[in-house]
Amino acid sequence: MEALCRPGTTEGFLGTDAKLLIARGVMSQDPWEPRAVRGAVRVLAIAPGTDERALAVLSEALAPSVEAGEVEWLDPIAGDTISAQVLFNRLRSGKSPHVVHYLGHGGVDLQGRPVLRLADDHDGEERWITVEALARELQSSFAEDLRLIVLESCEGGKPGVFGSAAEILVKAGADAVIAHLWPVRADVARLCSVEVYRTLTGSDRASGDIGASVAAARRTLLTESAAAFSPVLYLRASDPVIFNFKNRRVARPGNESRSKRLAPALQQIIEKPFTLVLGDNEGDRAVLKNEVVQFLVAQGETSDPGLPLSALMQQCAMRYGIDVCHSIFQTSILEQMQGSAPPFFEAMGRLLPPGVHFTLLWQPYLERAIAAAQPQRTIYAIQPSLRSSGKPRVIKRPAGAAAWKMEAAVPGRLDLDNEIVVLRIYGGYSAEARPIFSQPLLTEDDHLLSLRSLSWIEELLSQPRTRPSLFAGLLLRKWRHRMLLRWLHDERPPPKDSLAIVPSSASLTEPAIWDSGGWLEGAGRVAVIAEELEQLSALLLDAAQGA
Q: So what's the pLDDT on residue 311?
């Protein structure tokens, strides 16, 4: 259709006409409206595998728009470790994009379903994900923000596959999808991306019209080759306007970063001795929840995906035994540990003072970061046992040493003025070069009964109960987090000058609960900052270097 030419012309193609915008439509009952964007349009690139050329091409294409402040380039999900679990984990834990740009191969599986290729496994075997599974995850994670998906195949992709994939993605909730009908050269893909994003996100635009943007890209590509008709547009609505820029203010990222500083309350707490209380990773929990739901369904169980992870794990443990739960956990979490630790941990590794700190993470990111940043300190990492009579597992990285070694018990005397102790309350994997698995808190019973087995920790709690706490990633709307804080502070308010950092994506009521102290009778006000940890990382690293 796009390649039809008006009578009497040689280049009057319908697909390049600025007045007649052609798009493929799908049937959908989902509501639609343009997304109001007040700043830069956030673009997330997904590029599984070891070929970084396509990602570099896209990054170069967007560089002018990023420099102008029209586009924000989010950390790409790329590399040779991107399995389905890693992909979902990164999608759930990262910043919400307006545009997802997929770079890779497409295909059709034996059941005739469109699939996208991920990174190969350790044995070199190909790994694929169905487009339907990806569509569900994108709709679940980014329903409020996501408007456009771009499917771009490098050379070697199968023609036509991305067309059917685009239909599935549009039906699942994306307002628009751009797909290439056949593989295009890197230079053609770059030129296409430049024109689409420049026309769609330009600061002089009152709205982002994806139909006009694709038509403009086709006119530019037509001067080079017939590749102009490779990109096609799929729409869920009759209106191609997907972004509303009415109240938009664009600022160059360089000027913005120079003017941004740590919040005074955060600057104040890191300048004095404090206790870090680090929450768990919602991305890891979401991946694990998906795994246990799939297991229960495969056994013919009736399982409500709306239940929290602890309830689903309780169901699995009562029906099939806790060892099955642990097997599911190890399969899921070990794969997540293959990726590098988020930069927030590097910053905390440098900033943490001597004393006792707490982590609910199943991975040993925190203690490894401390060991790397503070080689002159002795560090203990302690994983409590869930059994009332069980002994905790203790490992020690002596000052000046490179390796962790196991200790028989918690030392009778700890030099908390010079040494660092990390209490791994939720268990999981140790910081050793070959991580050791300890029984994690998974089920409802685990969370309800675990704190009873920690009487031996009382001696270590005197310090955290008297100096300010930095709560990072804890949500008072979660009962297990409230239980932990009540236990940690012995049913008393947190110390004066304590500070909570909650995700900016959290409910608006979350900061109000911290601020009011309504979560605990007699609790005073706890200052709160609504910010994603990854957005604070660069500022915290600057503060650590300054210190």
A: 94
- Other CB atoms within 10 A of residue 466 CB: 11
Task: Let me know: does 440 contact 329? Beta carbons within 8 Å.
Answer: yes
Tokens standing for residue 115: 């699939």
For residues 50-76, average pLDDT: 84
Query: Diameter of the chain by CA atoms?
Result: 93
Is 0.70 surpassed by the pTM of this model?
no
Closest CA to 148 of 87, 63, 71, 222: 71
CA distance linking residue 89 with residue 288, whole number of Å: 10
Residue 235 CA to residue 246 CA, distance in Å, equals: 22
Spatial contact of 543 and 270, defined as CB atoms under 8 Å apart: yes
Closest-CA residue to 472 (of 354, 371, 342)? 342
Angle at 503 between CA 492 and CA 449, to 5 degrees: 45
The three-state secondary structure class of 158 is coil
Rounded Cα distance between 99 and 51, Å, is 22
The pLDDT assigned to 258 comes to: 40
Q: What are the residues whose beta carbons fall under 8 Å from the beta carbon of 300, sequence distance 6 or more?
A: none
Length of the chain: 547
Quote the CA–CA distance of 381 and 438 in Å, as a whole number. 12
The DSSP result for 274-301, as a single string, is -EEEE---HHHHHHHHHHHHHHHHHTT-
Question: Which pLDDT tens digit goes with each residue over 278-333?
Answer: 999 888 888 899 899 999 999 998 877 788 999 999 999 999 999 999 999 998 88
Tokens of 306: 């709306």
Phi/psi for 518 (5° steps) reads: -70, -5
DSSP-based three-state secondary structure for 389: coil
Identify the CA nearest to 23 among candidates 227, 141, 167: 167
pLDDT at 39: 87
Nearest to 361 by CA among 422, 424, 312, 301: 424
As separate numbers, helices (DSSP H) first and strands (DSSP E) second, the chain gives: 17, 25
CA–CA gap between residue 274 and residue 356 (Å, rounded): 9
Letter for the amino acid at 333? I
pLDDT for 158 beyond 50 = no
Scan for tokens 């595998």, then name that residue: 49
Our CA angle for 179, 181, 183, nearest 5°, is 100
Q: What is the DSSP string of 423-447?
A: EETT-EE-SSSSPPEE----SHHHH
In one-letter notation, the amino acid at residue 440 is P
